[in-house]
Design brief:
single chain, 171 residues, alpha+beta, five-stranded antiparallel β-sheet, 8 strands, 20% strand, zinc
């Protein structure tokens, strides 16, 4: 169920790297378009259910143009859940692929450069730093994209077994 979804993707290579290319799939023609920045990508992701992505949202692009990217195994792709909130102003959401390619881990980097790994750490940071009270706790989301198995590099043999937690497939 990959069409009509928004994906972020990571160029394959050294495990443990974070996402370096963001992309969205056009709802009409299903072509992939590079997204200019994480901030623009998060805006698209947060509103894609109400306002689907189409090629024309990228300046100078239409469904008649060739896609910017091809979904293939030259890169490790991950599929993101639509509707996640944008990262609060001043913070940065960081996603890191585990070395065994089993999943990604989500972190938030504070405006002061501190890495936060849990909602409790975020709440404590906001409580201790009143300048960041503008950041709603609900806008920090640790849901991670799903690693697309068919794009994991060959030779990755020691993988953590997958466990289902009842999450719905993205369509």
């Amino acid at each position: 169920m990959e069409e009509h979804t928004e994906k972020s993707k990571k160029i394959g290579g050294a495990p443990g790297r974070s996402i370096d290319i963001y992309a969205a799939q056009c709802e009409k023609c299903l072509k992939w378009r590079k997204i200019d920045s994480q901030e623009v990508y998060e805006e698209i992701r947060s509103t894609i259910q109400e306002d689907p992505f189409v090629c024309e949202k990228k300046q100078g692009k239409s469904c008649r143009d060739a896609g910017d990217l091809e979904y293939d195994s030259t890169r490790t792709w991950v599929i993101d859940k639509p509707g996640l909130p944008k990262t609060p102003r001043g913070f940065k959401r960081s996603l890191v692929l585990r070395k065994d390619f089993s999943k990604m881990d989500a972190y938030y980097i504070t405006p002061t450069g501190k890495k936060l790994r849990t909602r409790n750490e975020i709440a404590a940071f906001i409580d201790a730093n009143p300048d960041y009270k503008h950041a709603p706790l609900g806008d920090f989301n640790f849901t991670v994209p799903k690693v697309m198995e068919d794009t994991v590099p060959c030779g990755i043999t020691e993988r953590t077994p997958k466990r289902s937690k009842g999450l719905a497939m993205i369509d």
